[in-house]
UniProtKB/TrEMBL annotation:
Name of the protein in its database record: Cell division protein FtsQ
Ranges of Low complexity composition bias in the record: 31-40
Main localization category: membrane
Domain of life: Bacteria
InterPro entries: Cell_div_FtsQ/DivIB_C, FtsQ_DivIB, POTRA, POTRA_FtsQ_type
Gene Ontology terms: cellular component: plasma membrane
Record organism: Prauserella muralis
Alphabetized PANTHER family for the sequence: CELL DIVISION PROTEIN DIVIB, CELL DIVISION PROTEIN FTSQ
Amino acid sequence: MTTTRQSSARRRPPVRGAREPRTTRGRRSPAARARTGTGLTRRKAMRRRWVALLTVLTVAGLVYVLFFTSLLGVRSVEVVGADSVPAERVRDVADVPDRRAMLRVDTDAIAERVATLPGIATVDVSRSWPSTIEIAVTERSPIGFYNDGEELYLVDGGGLVYKKVAQRPKGLPELKLAEVGPDDPATRAATSVLRAIPAQLRERVRVVRAETPGSVEFTLAGGKVVRWGDAEQSERKAKVLAALLTRQGTTYDVSAPELPTVS
């Protein structure tokens, strides 16, 4: 009879309440994980600090280049719209600093200086990158001239006396008013009438008079006098006058266009 011996290595049943050993292969202890996490956090924080520093340095560099160097400085000044006023005269008065950083150029101050020129109505100054200052001007357009007894001056459509001339301008009527200026009611009425009448009729006007805003009258080439009245209903008055001028007479009154007269 064969006796089977039990191996001495036979496992014993686990003791109640005892914990089975856990393998630690491939796992790190909580302390190691904490040290690793802290290291990653520090590296991320350091990277962020470097990125922030580089950003600040980049912005500071751009500000320095844009505001304090001539790299993007003024190289040229372009004048647009100048005709009777020489462009070189506009540049001289504008006095734009050469090589000044574009962003440091005071465009408002330039516009104010150019606006002092006789004959300039409006000024617009802008930056044309990378290195040009553009000055766009609108010149005043004369609608008549004024004789103060000593000198002759051009007058624009707003009634502004803006430029002295040596002799009577061809094709412009003389404004014989007690006072000429944009704040004078009679001047405003007279210039409003001149702006409103047809160009063909305006070319025939030689003298404009007005003691009050409602008493505008003008003398045509050939000596005919037109009593216009105020600046209202100018289009209708012009049509009525065109019909009246076909009749013989020296004085044509269209101040009341519904009741015009010829005498």
